[in-house]
């Protein structure tokens, strides 16, 4: 693995702003200002603070991953994608379980907004494969999908590629299989990242930041190891050091 600079490492980190309100989220973002990392806005924050918090993060120069995991009929997803594109996010996701027509509708919604001149840029669109909290037992006996977790992840990745999406969300453990199936340019965004010695929390399929980079992931989502730390900026610096030095 080629060594990363600190700037390159930071550009791969998406900090999960899983906060209950805009004030808490923006206070955390301010602590990380200038670090070069992304901000991930998920359901808790977006449902509490709405589009305004995304606009504020963008005005402060952050790249934003809007993590709402859209999963609905194609027409609804097309409209949602159009609205998200107008909002100016850099990346958003849909559920791969929605199928090719639904995922393709998300791309159509992006094009609608761009073609109408309502958006400065077309965001990257990716699909969720299997949540990193999903174990083999849950996949087989609760969700009802046979085979291994990796089989299911790769199947959804291929569907996402065929639908015109640029990548997927998956565990870092499945990155190599996804790249082999869909090509090295197919983007992988990987939650389930825990620095050496950190608690796994509610994640089932995890690895360290260094191992995730060595495994070829493009972006890694990191939440509590940074956001719950007494000094989030120092916690991020420690992770970047681990990514660059091992």
**DSSP helical segment count:** 12
In the predicted model, the low-confidence regions spanning at least 5 consecutive residues are: none
Largest β sheet strand count, sense and barrel closure: 8 strands, parallel, barrel
Number of strands: 8
Strands of the widest sheet, in order across it, are 1-2-3-4-5-6-7-8
Could you estimate the helical fraction of the residues in percent? 40-55%
Using only C-alpha atoms, the radius of gyration works out to: 17 Å
Strand content: 5-15%
Listing every helix as H and every strand as E from the N terminus to the C terminus, the arrangement reads HEHEHHEHEHEHHEHEHEHH
Overall spatial form:
globular
What is the end-to-end distance? Answer: 11 Å
**Helix-and-strand structural type:** alpha/beta
